[in-house]
């Protein structure tokens, strides 16, 4: 697990999914949403080795089903299309056929193989796609005045208040390899494989099986460690494309720099995950929960997830109330082996529990710390050598307002 920037990596200023060589992206307004961009695409100049990870929600939406089936067949993607405003989820056979049509029309427009088109949708559940509007978006793909990474980032948003993007460079085989990414997510976010849309690109040459393994590994330390509201969506997935345009030696587990590549991929994923958590619906603060001293990695993760998912912890942070009892309570119901007389808790650098006992602290000082935009809660179980980090946000009145009127 990494939580800081690797030393041999350069974070690009305003980096995005088209920072890697050989990728373009764009977005248009096709009419699904009132005035905002609502149809976007990413395209590689050559077919890219690809990997995907998908929501565990039992009701997987039609676009996800189509993408998953194609990717399992060919292990390559050249074009990704995404619409916002309509999830095409719980739409039956009609929804599945609409997703297939989206895939076919995009393949014809971009002159690529049908199975090398990934389809994604996000928005309202239970309404069929307005295919007349989708066709308008597909017809505009690749047009120069619509090609811009920013357009793509805007087109995939729903209740998000800002775009989420990052890119880094690393040296592999004396080649400059770039990894870029974009994501959307603001509500229906909970650790259960991503629960959002994430798109990663790289110009590295990577073995397909190794890329899938690397994605699953990075997901477990990034998108699977965030929460906003505890709801897992029906549509969400993370895709990574490696188009190999930099011509390095094939990256796989035997390559001497494989660990550096995975580390960079994980950094990009973590940065995107934190941006999603920070932009939670109605959120004003990013919460980071760090666990230490756990007997296993699973224990460390589950304790961190329990605390970051607690509505009582989240509301306390919103109100700048250093109510450490809520943290202890969440640790206790995590269903993990805890030694109550050893646990230590700090809010930022302020100790509130030490060796299972309450520590006298200045409540005003703790309350002032909780007014920061980034709040860190540290939990030392003193029962092993494993740790984990989870991210989330505070729970505010505005979250209720946004979700009480989502469809109207």
Automatic annotation (TrEMBL):
Q: In which pathway does it act?
A: Amino-acid biosynthesis; L-arginine biosynthesis; N(2)-acetyl-L-ornithine from L-glutamate: step 1/4; Amino-acid biosynthesis; L-arginine biosynthesis; L-ornithine and N-acetyl-L-glutamate from L-glutamate and N(2)-acetyl-L-ornithine (cyclic): step 1/1
Q: What class of enzyme is it?
A: transferase
Q: Where does the record place it?
A: Cytoplasm
Q: Where is this site: Involved in the stabilization of negative charge on the oxyanion by the formation of the oxyanion hole?
A: 122-123
Assign the protein's first listed, main location to one coarse class: cytoplasm
InterPro entries in alphabetical order: Arg_biosynth_ArgJ (IPR002813), ArgJ-like_dom_sf (IPR016117), ArgJ_beta_C (IPR042195)
**EC annotation from Swiss-Prot or TrEMBL:** 2.3.1.35, 2.3.1.1
Q: What does this protein do?
A: Catalyzes two activities which are involved in the cyclic version of arginine biosynthesis: the synthesis of N-acetylglutamate from glutamate and acetyl-CoA as the acetyl donor, and of ornithine by transacetylation between N(2)-acetylornithine and glutamate.
- Assembly behavior: Heterotetramer of two alpha and two beta chains.
Q: What is this protein called?
A: Arginine biosynthesis bifunctional protein ArgJ
Q: Which organism is it from?
A: Oceanobacillus caeni
Please spell out the taxonomic lineage of the organism that makes this protein: Bacteria, Bacillati, Bacillota, Bacilli, Bacillales
């Amino acid at each position: 697990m990494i939580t800081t920037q690797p030393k041999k990596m350069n974070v690009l200023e305003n980096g995005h999914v088209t920072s890697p060589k050989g990728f373009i992206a764009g977005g248009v307004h096709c009419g699904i949403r009132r005035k905002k961009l609502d149809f976007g695409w990413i395209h590689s100049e050559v077919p890219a080795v690809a990997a995907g990870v998908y929501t565990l929600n039992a009701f997987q939406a039609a676009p996800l089903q189509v993408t998953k089936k194609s990717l399992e067949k060919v292990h390559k993607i050249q074009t990704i299309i995404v619409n916002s405003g309509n999830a095409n989820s719980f739409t039956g056979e009609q929804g599945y056929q609409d997703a297939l049509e989206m895939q076919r029309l995009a393949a014809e427009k971009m002159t690529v193989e049908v199975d090398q088109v990934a389809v994604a949708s996000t928005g309202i559940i239970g309404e069929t796609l307005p295919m007349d509007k989708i066709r308008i978006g597909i017809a505009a793909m690749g047009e120069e005045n619509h090609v811009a990474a920013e357009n793509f980032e805007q087109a995939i948003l729903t209740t998000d208040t800002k775009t989420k993007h990052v890119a880094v460079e690393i040296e592999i085989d004396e080649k400059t390899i770039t990894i870029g990414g974009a994501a959307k997510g603001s509500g229906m976010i909970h650790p259960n494989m991503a629960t959002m849309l994430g798109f990663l690109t790289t110009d590295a040459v990577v073995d397909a099986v190794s890329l899938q393994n690397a994605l699953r590994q990075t997901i477990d330390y990034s998108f699977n460690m965030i929460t906003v509201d505890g709801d897992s969506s029906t549509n969400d997935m993370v895709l990574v494309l490696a188009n190999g345009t930099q011509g390095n030696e094939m990256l796989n587990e035997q390559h001497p720099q494989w660990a550096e590549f995975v580390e960079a991929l994980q950094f990009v994923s973590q940065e995107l995950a934190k941006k999603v958590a920070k932009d939670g619906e109605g959120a004003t603060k990013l919460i980071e929960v760090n666990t230490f001293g756990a007997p296993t990695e699973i224990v460390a993760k589950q304790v961190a997830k329990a605390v970051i998912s607690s509505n009582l912890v989240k509301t306390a942070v919103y109100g700048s109330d250093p109510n450490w009892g809520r943290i202890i309570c969440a640790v206790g119901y995590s269903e993990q082996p805890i030694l109550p007389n050893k646990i230590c808790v700090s809010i930022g650098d302020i100790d509130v529990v030490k060796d299972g006992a309450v520590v006298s602290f200045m409540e005003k000082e703790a309350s002032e710390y909780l007014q920061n935009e980034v709040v860190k809660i540290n939990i030392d179980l003193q029962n092993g050598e494993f740790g984990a980090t989870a991210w989330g946000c505070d729970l505010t009145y505005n979250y209720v307002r946004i979700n009480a009127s989502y469809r109207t």
